[in-house]
Design brief:
This protein is 43% helix and 10% strand. The protein has 502 residues and is an alpha/beta fold. The protein folds into 3 domains: 5-141 and 348-379, Rossmann fold, CATH 3.40.50; 150-169 and 178-229 and 276-343, Rossmann fold (3-Layer(aba) Sandwich), CATH 3.40.50; 413-501, no CATH class. The strands form 4 sheets. A 6-stranded parallel beta sheet has the order 2-1-4-5-6-7. Helix 5 (175-194) links the parallel strand 8 (164-166) and strand 9 (200-202). Helix 14 (395-402) runs antiparallel to helix 15 (414-432), helix 15 (414-432) packs across helix 18 and helix 17 packs antiparallel against helix 18 (480-501). The longest helix has 22 residues, at 480-501. It is globular, with a radius of gyration of 25 Å.
Length: 502
């Protein structure tokens, strides 16, 4: 039997996030499918025929709920694709009706969602996504590569911090669950200081920790605070988004959750879809006992068994803190969480790959025997990839030259994405100043690029102005519809920048 060819669509602007990258690589790492990848956002041009593949898997990082985020040419290619279409969705609470429209418009057959099945009738009613097969998955899984060998994990008695946490105030948008990520840290700081209990709880941006330092932080803490991920504030029709914008316009600042709690409460009331966070798996890997608000956690962990429950009114906080020096008590939670989440293999990326594989093997044969699909395949003409122009004479030519995409063996890096966006903007700049070459002969690294971006793209052309570099940074994050509206203005700004730098 021929090996199935799988095309995974994603946004290269998101591959710097380790959990996203591991999610993307799961099928390649843990199945025998022939898996390829294609970047699909920021005006990406599809210079190949999707029908060379059997299955399309659209990853959650190329967010369908935002009109214009995935490119128009990608949408064209998906619509013309005759194979099995699977959408992996997270953050279902953002612009949910727009997400429904995209699922219908692009013809997805299967949606993998982290929403528990008890709430599918509210989030994905059948009349909104007719004929779509829903499958529950998690937002993340156990890290595929152990960050620290077991032999290097510190025993609890040697860990310098009794209790630790990192969080921040993310405002009102994500409702009560978003607020709890902040409130658990804020209030526990007060309680620890009232009781003279040393802690390493930080709630500001300056305290945030990234990369390998995060695992060092987990491994130096005797216990770790935490709460559910996700949101119960489903913004079906952008009502929450509009209310936040109105508040900011009047007050001159973002709203806090307490300021909009009365408005949000009836919107959140029907839902209880708290998710297990990747942080839970990371704590379990590092054998760090967890002190968590009670919650659903995707049904994966239970209070009093896998974590120490903290009541949301903090009524048992003193009792919880009194056990921080009871090493046997803490070790029991660390061991049970490790055995259940890590050693069992139930929550590994290999298990996620098995889930997706099961869906493919169930759904694909049904398509092969469907009379409509067979007829469509018999009469379809092969798509001809768009040929790149030899000379760039229009913004459309610039898109074809700089932003063309073909399947790759691995997801592209953020640096590769940034280099393509730089090349595109430089071509626009050349169009607005035809007396200059499209590329500068002695490029200066843009001040907007990080060290990894500079290293990976140092052989590629860059603009010669730090002011223009700021424009590049903004340009990369704009939706495609906005880009099209401001392209003429951007070209004028490029001229002004050149004049200012001469």
């Amino acid at each position: 039997m021929r090996t199935k060819r799988i095309l995974v669509a994603y946004s290269a602007a998101s591959t710097f996030v380790s959990t996203t990258l591991q999610h993307l690589l799961a099928l390649k790492d843990f199945t025998d499918y022939d898996v390829k990848y294609v970047h699909s956002t920021h005006q990406a041009q599809m210079n190949f025929d999707f029908n060379d593949f059997d299955v399309l898997i659209h990853n959650y990082c190329a967010r369908l709920c935002f009109d214009g985020y995935v490119s128009a040419d990608y949408e064209r290619a998906v619509t013309a694709f005759r194979g099995l279409k699977i959408a992996v969705v997270q953050d279902d609470y953002d612009r949910t009706i727009a997400l429904h429209r995209a699922i219908r418009r692009l013809g997805f057959h299967v949606v993998l969602t982290s929403i528990q099945s008890d709430f599918w009738h509210l989030v994905y009613p059948k009349w909104q996504v007719p004929g779509v097969r829903l499958v529950q998955a998690l937002t993340g899984y156990v890290p595929a590569n152990r960050p620290v060998p077991d032999k290097e994990i510190l025993p609890l008695r040697e860990r310098p911090h009794l209790i630790a946490y990192r969080g921040r105030d993310i405002g009102a948008k994500y409702g009560r669950l978003g607020f709890e990520k902040y409130e658990i840290g804020r209030r526990m700081i007060e309680i620890c200081e009232e009781q003279n209990i040393p802690h390493d709880i930080g709630m500001d941006d300056a305290s945030r920790i990234y990369g390998d330092d995060w695992y060092s932080f987990l491994g130096s803490s005797r216990t770790m605070l935490g709460s559910e991920s996700g949101s119960n504030a489903f913004d079906f029709d952008e009502v929450i988004e509009n209310r936040l914008s109105e508040f900011a316009a009047v007050q001159g600042r973002p709203a806090t959750y307490p300021e909009l709690a009365e408005f949000l409460e009836p919107l959140e009331r029907p839902f209880d879809v708290g998710q297990i966070s990747p942080r839970v798996f990371e704590c379990a890997v590092m054998r760090t006992p967890m002190i968590l608000f009670r919650g659903q956690y995707s049904g994966a962990i239970e209070p009093g068994i896998h974590y120490i429950p903290l009541e949301k009114d903090f009524s048992n906080a003193t009792d919880v803190l009194s056990r921080l020096r009871d090493l046997d008590f803490l070790q029991g939670f660390a061991d049970r969480a490790y055995d259940h989440l890590i050693a069992s293999g139930r929550y590994s990326y290999a298990r996620y790959a098995d889930l997706v594989s099961d869906v493919i093997e169930e759904q694909y044969p049904q398509m092969e025997v469907d009379s409509f699909v067979r007829h469509r395949n018999s009469i379809a003409a092969r798509a001809n990839p768009v040929q790149k122009p030899d000379v760039v004479t229009s913004p459309e030519d610039a898109v074809q030259v700089a932003l063309g995409e073909r399947p790759t063996e691995h997801p592209q890096s953020l640096a590769e994405f940034a280099a393509k966006q730089d090349a595109y903007v430089e071509l626009l700049r050349a169009l607005s100043a035809p007396e200059q070459s499209a590329y500068l002969s002695e490029p200066e690294q843009s001040a907007s690029l990080s060290e990894p971006e500079q290293s990976a793209s140092q052989s590629k052309p860059h603009v010669g102005s730090n002011k223009f570099g700021m424009v590049l940074q903004l340009w990369r994050i704009l939706p495609n519809g906005t880009r099209k509206r401001i392209s003429p203005a951007l070209r004028r700004l490029a001229d002004e920048t050149d004049n200012a730098s001469n």
